[in-house]
Structures are given as C-alpha cells and as structure tokens.
Amino acid sequence: MATVEIRNVRKSYGPVEAIKGIDIAIQDGEFLVLLGPSGCGKSTLLRMVAGLEGITGGEIAIGGRVVNHLDPKDRDIAMVFQNYALYPHMTVFDNMAYGLKIRGIPKAEIRARVDKAAEILELGRFLDRRPSQLSGGQRQRVAMGRAIVREPAAFLFDEPLSNLDAKLRTQMRVEIKRLQDRLGITSLYVTHDQVEAMTLADRILVMNHGVAEQIGTPLEVYQRPASLFVAGFIGSPPMNVLDGRIDDRGEAVLVPGGQRLPLPRPRPTDAGRPVKLGIRPEHMAVAAAGFSIEIELVEALGADTVVYGRLPDGETLLVRMAGIPTVRERDRLTVAPQDGALHLFDAVTGRRIE
Amino acid sequence: MQRRVTFDNRLLPYLLLAPQVAVTLVFFIWPAAQAIWQSVHLQDAFGIRSEFVWFENFTHVLGDPNYLDTLKVTIVFSVAVTVLAMGVALLLAVLADSKIKGARAYKTLLIWPYALAPAVAAVLWMFIFNPDIGSFGRALRALGYDWDYRLNGGQALVMVIMAASWKQVSYNFIFFLAGLQAIPRSVIEAASIDGAGPVRRFWTITFPLLSPTTFFLLVVDMVYAFFETFGTIHALTQGGPGKATETLIFRVYQDGVVNNDLGGSSAQSVILMVIVIALTAVQFRFVERKVHYA
Ligand SMILES: Nc1ncnc2c1ncn2[C@@H]1O[C@H](COP(=O)(O)OP(=O)(O)OP(=O)(O)O)[C@@H](O)[C@H]1O
Ligand SMILES: [Mg+2]
To answer: Can you give the residue ranges of the ABC transporter domain (chain A) (predicted)?
Structure first.
C-alpha cells in the first residue's frame, strides 16, 4: 500500500505532446479514476506509472520513491489490461501464481494466496483450465485475480470492463468496488464510461487533450464542473449550454430570446461580460414563465423522460423529467431552471466563473 | 472453429487441386515409385536388361561399413544444421522484433540469402574460405592456423554445415519473426509487470508461445538438411576430402549417377525416404504433444 505522486508529468511522441503536464497526489488507499474521451492520453499516463512507457518530463513516485528509471518489475504494481493479457499457455492457477513464483514465495503460500483469491472471485472451479476455455467475464476475473494475489503497492486498471456486455459490466463494477473496499489498495482506474467513474471513484481526474481539466470527487465534478468540457462530459444527457451576457447591473444573465435569469448573488464587476450559461437537463422544470420550447422528440426511459425541445432561435434544449411522459411531440412547453442551477463559464476560455 | 467454404460447381474444387496434384505426381510419386521399383532390380552395365533380385540391393548397402560412416556424417550434419539454423534465426528474429534502429533494412538483408541458388551461395563461401584466395581462409593461415578444408575432413564438415545453415537461416527467420509478432504485446507487458526480466520473459512466455512455429521449422529443417543440401555439398566439397562430407543424399547421387549403380542408389533412396518419414512421424508423435497451439 502506498501513495502515488505524479508531478508535472509530460510525454511526447516525437513532436506530438500526448501528456502536457499532469500533477496529482493519490492518497494511500484512494481510488482515482482517469476519465476522458478516446485519445486524451489516459492509457499513456497509466502506462507511464506502470513503467511500460518512458517519461519525457516530470516525476512519478510510488510510496515516496521516485520510479522514473525503474523497470516495471521493480515498481511493485499490478495491472489489469483491457484485453486481460492472460498467459494463454498456462492454467488459471499458473496465471495467478506466475508473479509469486518469480518473487520466490514458498509453494504453500502461493497455493494459499491463489486459493483465497479464487474464492473471492469465484474461480475455484476453473483453476485447472486454460484461458481459452473461459468466458469473457471469467477471464476478466482471472486478470483481477492475478493482480490481487500479488498484494502490490498499487493497482492499475486500463478499461478492464470495456470488453464485457452491459449486464456483466455492472456486476463486475460492483465487484471491483467491493474488492477495493476490502483490500484498500491504492488504485488508478482508466475509463471513458462516466457511470463507472462516478460509482467507483474517490476522486476523478477528468482529462482532455493531455491536460487535467478537473480533479475532484464525483459530486464536485458533477455539481461544480471546472470547465465547459467537464460540464459536457459528465452527466447524461449532457448539460445545456447557451450563449449569454451578464446584464449591466451584474444581477442577471440575459440569453437570446429576451430571457432574464437572475444570478444567485450579484457580481457587479462582471457587468456586461459575455458568458456561456450551463443548465443540466435534470435541473429544468415546467414553469409559468421561462424558456418556451417546441417539443421535437420525447425519449421515455421508464424511470424518467428526456424531452428534446427547440428554442425560438433554433437552439436545442434538453429537459429531463421524472416518470413516464406527460407531453407529446410538437407540444409547446414553458420550462425554467431551478434555483441555483445555473453554471457560468467564460465565453472564451470555457473556464468556470464562480 | 473451422470455416467451411462450399462450391456450387462440383468440378471446380478438383480443378483447383489439379495443378498441385499433378506436381506431386510427376515430381514426387512417380520418381518415388521408380526408386522403389529399381531398388529391387539389378541392371546390367548398359542399362538394357534388368533382373528382379528381391532385397539384394538393400543387404548390399546396409552391409557396407562405408554406408554406416555416411550415416554418421549425415546425423552430425543434420543435427548441426538444424540447431544452428534455428538458433541463429531465432536470435536474429528476437533482435529484429525488439525496437532497434534500422530494423527494416536489417530484416530485408536477412531475407536475401534465401533467394540465392545453392551453387551461387557455395561460390560465395569459397571466396571466403578458400585457403589461397578466400579472405577468411587466408587470414586464418596468416594467423598460423593450418586451414585447408580440401585436406582436413573436420574443417570441410564445419564449412558445409555453416554454408547449409546460413541458407536456411533466412527461411527460419521469416517464420520466427512472424511468430513473434503474433504474440500480443500486452502479454509480454503483463509478464514484466509480474516481475519477469527479459530472459525469464523469453523462456517462460515468448518461447512457449512460439512453439508451433518452432515445431514446424524443426520438421522443415530436418527435411532440408537431409535432402536439399545436395547442391551446397556438391559445389563446395563434392563429399570430400575422402568421404568426410558425404551425406546420404550425396551418396545416392555418387553411387547412382557417377558410379552407375542404379539399384544400389535406389535402395539408398528408399532407405533415406523411410528414415525421413520415420523422423517426421516421431516428431509429430512426441514433440507436438508439448506444443501449445494458442
Ligand atoms: N506509440 C505512439 N506513438 C505516437 N503517438 C502515440 C503513441 N501512443 C499513443 N499515442 C498518441 O497519444 C495520445 C493518447 O493516447 P492514449 O492511448 O493514451 O489514449 P487513451 O486516452 O487511452 O484513448 P482510448 O480511450 O481510445 O484508449 C493519442 O493521441 C495517441 O494517438
Ligand atoms: Mg486507452
């Protein structure tokens, strides 16, 4: 068990900079999720921690020891790969025991540790099988087992669930959460699935184009997204974003169409400033006055309903309502944001305005 | 899972097979049948009459102490060529598979020798090892080492082994490289995270996963060493000095074409055929069991 510190870490592939300076200190026993769209550099960062990828700049320390120049084998970490990367010529038992044998652990203890892991992961019946004789979910569990028998300083996961079907994914997600609570081993978990991120993480690092857009707890990231990018990436359906301007007295936001939405507290220094206004679909409600929309599409999800409305100026506005639909396509509806549901972002930089 | 291709036309499959069947018939089955027929006949000196003699040719051949010497030379030669050609090719393929500078040029250069005719290759080796004009041969003599493969049987054998292996290295290299590249990188990475250094990774992960390729090449290289090295030996040493580099296949030629003993030569061909069939069967029976097909 250990802390993992990433200090101003950079990675370049020739002229291309994939990681542009990331800083984060992961606490002992913390579960950190790296979340971001495809190609943003999540795997690259994880592989640098593992030692599979060289570090162009900055420092990585595991348990207080700088590991920049250590081989993967000397970093005391375990990794679960997206394609599981099991040893195809070895049995499930040997797959899990491989790392222990190399470390010269006595046979009896290897047996005990593998049996224990197999019990936790319900793999007991499969110990003599080859990976090719297992289902996808079982292989995934063997990959997890191989990581936990090692009792490493940190776990690294690179999209471990993305090859499973939706149901199994949910099941394994819960299992990973349970394992982490039980073992309390520092974990870095890469995913582009926000549900996985929200449910597993102690903290989320939202990445975009090789930079950390925001680091925070799942609720912080949801309630106070640090940038337009985070606002759009977290939450489903995504946040509505409208162009707006703070009025001359700094008391409200004006949006095209004449709407005037009062600010929770006045900000006279920002009077006249152009902004981007964010409102989550679930924070919109039917009201007497507000945005008038024409309904284009109604998606009934069962527990709730997503309404796609069109504003008079042609912009789309999403509204999420509880329960089954009470409106139909081509209906007209007036909706307004709930109190305190406004997010303001700088119109140029996209950074959050507090 | 096997994929099945079905043809609408009933004739088409046979038509597609025909060229391969024809080649096999004309160049393998027919000569083999002829060899078997001749091995139980005795021809007169002019090749006009022949007489059925049962197994006389075989008892003659097997009773000849020279033949056993040839067998010994063949075993040493074949084992050495197979081990050397596979070992060197595997080493080169592992190097080419790792990230080295100029890997492309290096791969191309390694494949070239395979395109060379045995006789041309042999001339090349002569230019290197000839004690009078060969660069390496002269260097050895200049250093005071008594190098002359035309007189020293051991040296001659070493030289033909090297020449024969060198030609097969290219072929093995291509297969080993393809085999290595088929191993998922993440499996090797998983092993390094599990704590295995490069040497252990090679022997516990890479080598076992390469075993289907290794097994295939083992069979091919044995057959190569037995049958296809005739050209190399013929061009370099003609089986000499004495009979130091005379392998079974070379002796077949020597007795049949040069000494005109068609019956004896055919009997030897048949024996050779039986040996290779037996060897291949043994390899499939015992070695393949240890092979892991992923
Ligand atoms: N070996 C390489 N050479 C050059 N560029 C690379 C290399 N590996 C990755 N990259 C680039 O670095 C960036 C980050 O890649 P990375 O694999 O970390 O993305 P990711 O966030 O894991 O994406 P995904 O969700 O699709 O797995 C990408 O733009 C990719 O093209
Ligand atoms: Mg990735």
So the answer is: 4-234
Burial bucket for residue B212 (CB in 10 Å: 0-12, 13-18, 19+): middle
What are the φ and ψ backbone dihedral angles of A188, each rounded to 5 degrees? -115, 125
Structural domain includes residue B18 = no
A186-191 and A203-208 as β-strands: parallel, antiparallel, unpaired?
Answer: unpaired
Number of domains in chain A: 2
Token code pair at residue A243:
């162009």
Residue with CA closest to ligand 1 atom 19: A39
The whole-angstrom distance between residue A348's C-alpha and the CA centroid of its chain comes to 25
ipTM of the complex: 0.85
CB B58 within 8 A of CB B267: yes
Nearest beta carbon to residue B195 from set A88, A102, A132: A102
Q: What is the pLDDT of residues A132-180, one digit of tens each?
A: 999 888 999 999 999 999 889 999 999 999 888 888 888 889 989 888 8
A38 touches ligand 1 (CB under 6 Å): yes
Question: A175 vs chain B: nearest CA distance in angstroms?
Answer: 22
Q: How many residues does chain B have?
A: 294
Q: Which residues pair with A214 in a beta bridge?
A: A206
What's the domain count of chain B? Answer: 1
Domain coverage including residue A261: 236-353
pLDDT digits (tens, 9 = 90+) for B135-152: 887 887 878 777 777 777
For residue A41, the ligand closest to its alpha carbon is 1
Is the same domain home to A223 and A246? Answer: no
On whether both A24 and A145 belong to a single domain, the answer is: yes
- B217 to chain A, closest Cα gap in Å: 20
Residue B109 is part of which domain span?
Answer: 65-290
Strands A57-62 and A65-66, by their bridges, are antiparallel
- Are residues A277 and A217 part of one domain? no
